[in-house]
Amino acid sequence: MTLANVITLVKPDDWHVHLRDGDMLRMALPWSARVFGRAIVMPNLDPPVTTAARAAAYRDRIRRVLPGGSGFEPLMTCFLTDETEPKDIAQGFAEGIVMAVKMYPARSTTNAAAGVTDVRRVSRVLERMQAIGMPLLIHGEVADPETDVFDREKAFIDRVLVQLRADFPALRIVLEHITTAQAVDYVQDAAGPIGATITAHHLMINRNAMFAGGIRPHMYCLPVAKREGHRLALRKAATSGDPRFFLGTDSAPHLVQDKESACGCAGVFTAPVALELYAQVFEEERALDRLEAFASLNGARFYGLPPNTETVTLEQSPWQPPELLPVGEADHVRVFCPEGKARWRLLEPAA
Ligand code: DOR
Ligand code: ZN
Question: If exposure means fewest CB atoms within 10 Å of the residue's CB, which of 16, 69, 132, 185 is most exposed?
Protein backbone atom coordinates (compact mmCIF):
# COMPACT_ATOMS: atom_id res chain seq x y z
CA MET A 1 0.00 0.00 0.00
CA THR A 2 1.38 3.45 -0.83
CA LEU A 3 -0.47 6.54 0.32
CA ALA A 4 1.31 9.87 0.14
CA ASN A 5 2.71 9.56 3.63
CA VAL A 6 2.30 5.94 4.70
CA ILE A 7 3.84 2.89 3.11
CA THR A 8 3.36 -0.77 4.00
CA LEU A 9 5.86 -3.31 2.73
CA VAL A 10 6.45 -7.00 3.00
CA LYS A 11 8.89 -7.22 5.91
CA PRO A 12 12.39 -6.51 4.51
CA ASP A 13 15.61 -8.47 4.95
CA ASP A 14 19.15 -7.17 5.33
CA TRP A 15 21.39 -9.08 2.94
CA HIS A 16 24.64 -7.75 4.47
CA VAL A 17 25.14 -6.82 8.11
CA HIS A 18 27.86 -6.87 10.77
CA LEU A 19 26.39 -7.94 14.09
CA ARG A 20 29.72 -8.45 15.93
CA ASP A 21 29.92 -10.37 19.20
CA GLY A 22 29.74 -9.82 22.98
CA ASP A 23 28.62 -6.36 24.18
CA MET A 24 28.55 -4.98 20.64
CA LEU A 25 26.25 -7.81 19.50
CA ARG A 26 23.94 -7.11 22.46
CA MET A 27 23.74 -3.48 21.40
CA ALA A 28 23.46 -3.99 17.62
CA LEU A 29 21.23 -7.02 17.21
CA PRO A 30 17.93 -5.61 18.55
CA TRP A 31 18.14 -2.78 15.99
CA SER A 32 18.34 -5.20 13.08
CA ALA A 33 15.76 -7.55 14.60
CA ARG A 34 13.37 -4.61 15.08
CA VAL A 35 12.71 -4.26 11.37
CA PHE A 36 14.33 -7.01 9.32
CA GLY A 37 13.03 -10.56 9.04
CA ARG A 38 16.37 -12.12 8.16
CA ALA A 39 19.92 -10.97 7.68
CA ILE A 40 23.06 -12.31 6.09
CA VAL A 41 25.57 -12.03 8.93
CA MET A 42 29.14 -11.16 8.05
CA PRO A 43 31.89 -13.46 9.38
CA ASN A 44 34.69 -10.92 9.94
CA LEU A 45 34.95 -11.44 13.68
CA ASP A 46 38.34 -11.66 15.33
CA PRO A 47 39.13 -14.51 14.78
CA PRO A 48 36.94 -14.83 11.67
CA VAL A 49 34.17 -17.39 11.24
CA THR A 50 36.05 -19.71 8.92
CA THR A 51 34.28 -23.05 9.34
CA ALA A 52 30.74 -24.41 9.49
CA ALA A 53 31.26 -25.31 13.15
CA ARG A 54 32.25 -21.73 13.97
CA ALA A 55 29.24 -20.45 12.02
CA ALA A 56 26.93 -22.72 14.02
CA ALA A 57 28.47 -21.53 17.30
CA TYR A 58 28.14 -17.88 16.23
CA ARG A 59 24.51 -18.46 15.24
CA ASP A 60 23.86 -19.83 18.74
CA ARG A 61 25.45 -16.76 20.33
CA ILE A 62 23.24 -14.52 18.18
CA ARG A 63 20.10 -16.48 19.01
CA ARG A 64 20.84 -16.28 22.74
CA VAL A 65 20.93 -12.47 22.55
CA LEU A 66 17.78 -12.07 20.42
CA PRO A 67 14.98 -10.15 22.11
CA GLY A 68 12.23 -12.47 23.37
CA GLY A 69 9.56 -13.23 20.81
CA SER A 70 11.65 -12.00 17.89
CA GLY A 71 11.29 -14.04 14.71
CA PHE A 72 14.53 -12.60 13.31
CA GLU A 73 16.58 -15.21 11.51
CA PRO A 74 20.37 -14.88 11.24
CA LEU A 75 21.67 -16.42 8.01
CA MET A 76 25.28 -17.37 8.47
CA THR A 77 28.34 -17.03 6.27
CA CYS A 78 31.86 -18.45 6.32
CA PHE A 79 34.96 -16.35 5.79
CA LEU A 80 36.90 -17.68 2.80
CA THR A 81 40.62 -18.22 3.33
CA ASP A 82 43.29 -19.91 1.27
CA GLU A 83 42.79 -22.89 3.59
CA THR A 84 38.99 -23.28 3.39
CA GLU A 85 37.96 -26.91 2.87
CA PRO A 86 35.33 -27.36 0.12
CA LYS A 87 33.87 -30.29 2.04
CA ASP A 88 33.34 -28.29 5.23
CA ILE A 89 31.40 -25.43 3.68
CA ALA A 90 29.45 -27.76 1.37
CA GLN A 91 28.36 -29.78 4.38
CA GLY A 92 27.43 -26.62 6.27
CA PHE A 93 25.37 -25.52 3.28
CA ALA A 94 23.61 -28.89 2.98
CA GLU A 95 22.78 -28.80 6.69
CA GLY A 96 21.33 -25.30 6.44
CA ILE A 97 23.98 -23.80 8.73
CA VAL A 98 25.97 -21.79 6.20
CA MET A 99 24.05 -19.82 3.62
CA ALA A 100 26.98 -18.35 1.68
CA VAL A 101 30.73 -17.80 1.67
CA LYS A 102 32.26 -14.34 1.99
CA MET A 103 35.39 -13.46 0.09
CA TYR A 104 37.53 -10.60 1.36
CA PRO A 105 40.72 -9.97 -0.55
CA ALA A 106 43.44 -10.29 2.12
CA ARG A 107 43.82 -7.06 4.13
CA SER A 108 41.03 -5.27 2.25
CA THR A 109 39.11 -4.20 5.37
CA THR A 110 38.32 -4.76 9.07
CA ASN A 111 39.56 -8.17 10.31
CA ALA A 112 40.34 -9.31 6.77
CA ALA A 113 44.01 -10.16 7.32
CA ALA A 114 43.22 -13.84 6.71
CA GLY A 115 41.35 -13.14 3.47
CA VAL A 116 42.11 -14.62 0.07
CA THR A 117 45.59 -13.82 -1.24
CA ASP A 118 44.88 -15.01 -4.80
CA VAL A 119 41.60 -16.40 -6.17
CA ARG A 120 43.50 -19.19 -7.89
CA ARG A 121 44.21 -20.59 -4.43
CA VAL A 122 40.50 -21.07 -3.73
CA SER A 123 39.44 -22.54 -7.05
CA ARG A 124 38.54 -25.91 -5.52
CA VAL A 125 36.17 -24.19 -3.12
CA LEU A 126 34.62 -22.08 -5.88
CA GLU A 127 34.16 -25.14 -8.07
CA ARG A 128 32.28 -26.92 -5.32
CA MET A 129 30.16 -23.86 -4.55
CA GLN A 130 29.26 -23.51 -8.21
CA ALA A 131 28.23 -27.17 -8.33
CA ILE A 132 25.94 -26.94 -5.29
CA GLY A 133 24.54 -23.45 -5.96
CA MET A 134 26.12 -21.85 -2.88
CA PRO A 135 26.48 -18.06 -3.22
CA LEU A 136 29.83 -16.29 -3.08
CA LEU A 137 29.61 -12.83 -1.51
CA ILE A 138 32.41 -10.56 -2.57
CA HIS A 139 34.05 -7.54 -1.00
CA GLY A 140 34.96 -6.19 -4.40
CA GLU A 141 38.09 -4.15 -3.86
CA VAL A 142 41.70 -4.88 -4.63
CA ALA A 143 43.77 -4.41 -1.48
CA ASP A 144 46.93 -3.48 -3.32
CA PRO A 145 48.33 -0.34 -1.61
CA GLU A 146 49.55 0.98 -4.96
CA THR A 147 46.01 1.29 -6.30
CA ASP A 148 44.24 4.55 -5.54
CA VAL A 149 41.64 4.04 -2.81
CA PHE A 150 38.90 5.45 -5.00
CA ASP A 151 39.75 3.11 -7.88
CA ARG A 152 39.87 -0.15 -5.95
CA GLU A 153 36.36 -1.34 -6.80
CA LYS A 154 36.75 -0.77 -10.51
CA ALA A 155 40.21 -2.36 -10.41
CA PHE A 156 38.72 -5.42 -8.71
CA ILE A 157 36.11 -5.81 -11.44
CA ASP A 158 38.68 -5.44 -14.21
CA ARG A 159 41.50 -7.48 -12.69
CA VAL A 160 39.68 -10.16 -10.70
CA LEU A 161 35.93 -10.41 -11.20
CA VAL A 162 35.82 -10.65 -14.98
CA GLN A 163 38.21 -13.60 -14.96
CA LEU A 164 36.59 -15.23 -11.95
CA ARG A 165 33.21 -15.19 -13.68
CA ALA A 166 34.70 -16.51 -16.90
CA ASP A 167 36.17 -19.42 -14.91
CA PHE A 168 32.99 -20.05 -12.91
CA PRO A 169 30.11 -18.83 -15.10
CA ALA A 170 27.39 -20.55 -13.08
CA LEU A 171 28.68 -19.47 -9.65
CA ARG A 172 26.08 -17.40 -7.83
CA ILE A 173 27.73 -14.11 -6.88
CA VAL A 174 26.74 -11.06 -4.87
CA LEU A 175 28.96 -8.06 -5.37
CA GLU A 176 28.56 -6.45 -1.98
CA HIS A 177 28.02 -2.77 -1.12
CA ILE A 178 28.71 -1.46 -4.61
CA THR A 179 29.85 2.16 -4.80
CA THR A 180 30.58 2.95 -8.44
CA ALA A 181 28.83 3.45 -11.76
CA GLN A 182 31.18 0.80 -13.16
CA ALA A 183 29.88 -1.78 -10.69
CA VAL A 184 26.29 -0.85 -11.51
CA ASP A 185 26.96 -1.27 -15.23
CA TYR A 186 28.82 -4.51 -14.73
CA VAL A 187 26.09 -6.11 -12.63
CA GLN A 188 23.29 -4.86 -14.86
CA ASP A 189 24.81 -6.22 -18.03
CA ALA A 190 26.57 -9.40 -16.89
CA ALA A 191 25.30 -12.75 -18.09
CA GLY A 192 24.55 -15.31 -15.40
CA PRO A 193 23.60 -15.33 -11.73
CA ILE A 194 24.89 -12.12 -10.19
CA GLY A 195 23.36 -9.55 -7.85
CA ALA A 196 24.57 -6.59 -5.83
CA THR A 197 23.74 -5.06 -2.49
CA ILE A 198 23.57 -1.30 -2.02
CA THR A 199 23.85 0.44 1.35
CA ALA A 200 21.73 3.34 2.56
CA HIS A 201 24.83 5.41 3.28
CA HIS A 202 26.25 5.06 -0.24
CA LEU A 203 22.89 6.26 -1.55
CA MET A 204 23.05 9.32 0.73
CA ILE A 205 26.61 10.61 0.83
CA ASN A 206 29.41 11.17 -1.61
CA ARG A 207 33.08 11.48 -0.71
CA ASN A 208 32.80 15.16 0.19
CA ALA A 209 30.97 14.09 3.35
CA MET A 210 34.25 12.75 4.74
CA PHE A 211 35.92 16.16 4.44
CA ALA A 212 33.13 18.66 5.20
CA GLY A 213 34.93 21.37 7.19
CA GLY A 214 37.42 18.84 8.58
CA ILE A 215 37.97 15.11 8.65
CA ARG A 216 34.77 13.21 9.44
CA PRO A 217 35.65 9.72 10.64
CA HIS A 218 32.02 8.72 11.05
CA MET A 219 31.53 9.03 7.29
CA TYR A 220 34.37 6.64 6.57
CA CYS A 221 33.60 3.12 5.44
CA LEU A 222 34.91 0.63 2.89
CA PRO A 223 34.46 0.73 0.03
CA VAL A 224 34.87 4.44 0.57
CA ALA A 225 32.12 6.75 -0.75
CA LYS A 226 32.91 8.00 -4.25
CA ARG A 227 32.14 11.07 -6.40
CA GLU A 228 28.60 12.39 -6.76
CA GLY A 229 28.14 10.83 -10.21
CA HIS A 230 28.63 7.40 -8.69
CA ARG A 231 26.12 8.08 -5.95
CA LEU A 232 23.57 9.08 -8.57
CA ALA A 233 24.22 5.88 -10.52
CA LEU A 234 23.64 3.86 -7.34
CA ARG A 235 20.36 5.68 -6.69
CA LYS A 236 19.22 4.96 -10.20
CA ALA A 237 20.09 1.27 -9.91
CA ALA A 238 18.47 0.80 -6.50
CA THR A 239 15.24 2.47 -7.55
CA SER A 240 15.14 0.94 -11.04
CA GLY A 241 13.22 -2.19 -10.06
CA ASP A 242 16.01 -4.33 -11.57
CA PRO A 243 15.87 -7.56 -9.49
CA ARG A 244 19.67 -7.78 -9.40
CA PHE A 245 19.89 -4.94 -6.88
CA PHE A 246 18.83 -5.40 -3.30
CA LEU A 247 19.12 -4.06 0.22
CA GLY A 248 22.26 -4.73 2.24
CA THR A 249 22.97 -2.14 4.90
CA ASP A 250 26.59 -3.07 5.67
CA SER A 251 25.71 -1.63 9.07
CA ALA A 252 29.10 -1.95 10.83
CA PRO A 253 29.34 -0.62 14.38
CA HIS A 254 32.64 0.51 15.86
CA LEU A 255 33.29 2.19 19.20
CA VAL A 256 33.58 5.97 18.98
CA GLN A 257 37.16 5.75 20.32
CA ASP A 258 38.09 3.42 17.46
CA LYS A 259 36.54 5.72 14.85
CA GLU A 260 37.94 8.97 16.28
CA SER A 261 41.54 7.87 16.17
CA ALA A 262 44.77 8.54 14.29
CA CYS A 263 43.91 5.42 12.31
CA GLY A 264 40.14 5.21 12.48
CA CYS A 265 38.19 2.06 11.62
CA ALA A 266 36.07 1.79 8.49
CA GLY A 267 32.35 1.31 9.01
CA VAL A 268 29.16 3.20 9.74
CA PHE A 269 26.33 2.02 11.97
CA THR A 270 23.01 2.45 10.18
CA ALA A 271 20.87 -0.32 11.64
CA PRO A 272 18.69 1.92 13.87
CA VAL A 273 17.60 4.02 10.93
CA ALA A 274 18.48 2.10 7.77
CA LEU A 275 15.05 1.23 6.38
CA GLU A 276 13.88 4.75 7.16
CA LEU A 277 16.84 6.21 5.20
CA TYR A 278 16.22 3.93 2.23
CA ALA A 279 12.58 5.09 2.25
CA GLN A 280 13.77 8.69 2.15
CA VAL A 281 15.99 7.96 -0.86
CA PHE A 282 13.19 6.19 -2.72
CA GLU A 283 10.83 9.04 -1.94
CA GLU A 284 13.35 11.59 -3.22
CA GLU A 285 13.67 9.53 -6.40
CA ARG A 286 9.86 9.30 -6.68
CA ALA A 287 10.14 5.53 -6.55
CA LEU A 288 8.46 4.57 -3.27
CA ASP A 289 6.45 2.01 -5.21
CA ARG A 290 9.73 0.16 -5.90
CA LEU A 291 11.01 0.12 -2.33
CA GLU A 292 9.34 -3.21 -1.60
CA ALA A 293 11.07 -4.96 -4.51
CA PHE A 294 14.47 -3.62 -3.43
CA ALA A 295 14.04 -4.15 0.31
CA SER A 296 11.84 -7.22 0.57
CA LEU A 297 11.65 -9.26 -2.64
CA ASN A 298 14.73 -9.13 -4.86
CA GLY A 299 17.21 -10.44 -2.30
CA ALA A 300 14.98 -13.28 -1.15
CA ARG A 301 14.54 -14.33 -4.75
CA PHE A 302 18.29 -14.29 -5.36
CA TYR A 303 18.87 -16.50 -2.32
CA GLY A 304 16.00 -18.82 -3.28
CA LEU A 305 13.97 -17.98 -0.17
CA PRO A 306 10.30 -17.04 0.07
CA PRO A 307 9.50 -13.43 0.98
CA ASN A 308 8.61 -12.80 4.61
CA THR A 309 4.93 -13.13 5.43
CA GLU A 310 4.67 -10.17 7.85
CA THR A 311 4.60 -6.52 6.84
CA VAL A 312 6.09 -3.30 8.19
CA THR A 313 4.63 0.17 7.92
CA LEU A 314 6.50 3.44 7.61
CA GLU A 315 5.00 6.85 8.04
CA GLN A 316 6.35 10.16 6.83
CA SER A 317 6.93 11.88 10.12
CA PRO A 318 10.30 13.37 11.10
CA TRP A 319 11.98 12.00 14.19
CA GLN A 320 15.32 12.11 15.87
CA PRO A 321 17.15 8.77 15.91
CA PRO A 322 19.47 8.13 18.84
CA GLU A 323 22.86 9.72 18.21
CA LEU A 324 25.01 7.66 20.54
CA LEU A 325 24.28 4.20 21.86
CA PRO A 326 26.14 2.82 24.87
CA VAL A 327 28.17 -0.35 24.49
CA GLY A 328 29.36 -1.98 27.70
CA GLU A 329 30.40 0.44 30.44
CA ALA A 330 32.85 2.73 28.78
CA ASP A 331 32.04 3.73 25.24
CA HIS A 332 29.43 4.35 22.57
CA VAL A 333 28.63 3.80 18.94
CA ARG A 334 27.51 6.72 16.79
CA VAL A 335 24.44 6.21 14.61
CA PHE A 336 24.69 7.32 10.98
CA CYS A 337 22.07 9.91 10.10
CA PRO A 338 23.61 12.64 7.95
CA GLU A 339 20.73 15.09 8.27
CA GLY A 340 20.29 14.57 12.02
CA LYS A 341 16.62 13.78 11.57
CA ALA A 342 15.03 10.94 9.66
CA ARG A 343 11.98 11.81 7.59
CA TRP A 344 10.37 8.36 7.72
CA ARG A 345 9.43 6.54 10.88
CA LEU A 346 8.75 2.88 11.46
CA LEU A 347 5.38 2.31 13.07
CA GLU A 348 5.68 -0.33 15.73
CA PRO A 349 3.20 -3.12 15.21
CA ALA A 350 0.14 -2.74 17.42
CA ALA A 351 0.63 -4.79 20.61
O1 DOR B 1 33.17 -0.10 6.24
C2 DOR B 1 33.29 -1.30 6.42
N3 DOR B 1 33.18 -1.85 7.65
N4 DOR B 1 33.56 -2.07 5.38
C5 DOR B 1 33.83 -3.36 5.53
O6 DOR B 1 34.08 -4.00 4.55
C7 DOR B 1 33.91 -3.98 6.87
C8 DOR B 1 33.13 -3.25 7.83
C9 DOR B 1 33.43 -3.63 9.24
O10 DOR B 1 33.45 -4.81 9.56
O11 DOR B 1 33.64 -2.73 10.07
ZN1 ZN C 1 30.41 -5.36 5.27
Answer: 69
